[in-house]
Amino acid sequence: MSMKRIIFMFLGLIAVVYIIGCVKKQRAEEIQQPMTMEELTALTTQTNTPSESKSQTIQTPPAPGPEVKLEALPPPGPYKPTAIEIQTALKNANFYTGAIDGKIGPKTKKAIEEFQKANGLEVDGKVGPKTWAALSKYLNPPTPSIEKK
Q1: How far is CA 147 from the centre of its chain?
Q2: Tens-place pLDDT, residues 47-81
Q3: Pairwise CA distance, residues 70 & 72, whole Å
Q4: For the chain, what is the domain count?
Q5: Sequence-separated (6 or more) residues with CB below 8 Å from residue 140
Q6: 102 falls within a domain
Q7: Which of 9-13, 49-53, 101-105 has the lowest mean pLDDT?
Q8: Is 61 contained in some domain?
Q9: What is the extent of the structural domain holding 9?
Q10: By the 8 A CB rule, do 87 and 102 touch?
Q11: How many Å apart are CA 133 and CA 127, to the nearest integer?
């Protein structure tokens, strides 16, 4: 055998191995892709012949329903009111006369302390669980009653 012939056969062998590798890779990619309903139906009609004793059933996924948006759950533990809720409740309870601006400043702290003192709570100027339990009752102003004559 000549050297040219050996090199030619070796290159041919490498080309065959490369082509086989590409075909295997392409088949693997095809297998990994999801099948459409048409492909699935065609596949089952090809594999199900009358001579088979076992029947195959295909379950289709349920149709998507309306989207349901879930609200974020409050963090665990006691409820932490916002500054606006605190100011609103203090104003409704007649302890705060300033503007409801969502900022806990000196006027709001003083109102919190006065509310705590009037309700027999620990006077610390902070709205903790006990203070909020007493103050939250004033968050929604009472509806005026209409007298009928």
Answers
A1: 49
A2: 555 554 455 566 666 666 666 666 666 566 678 89
A3: 6
A4: 2
A5: 92
A6: yes
A7: 49-53
A8: no
A9: 3-39
A10: yes
A11: 9
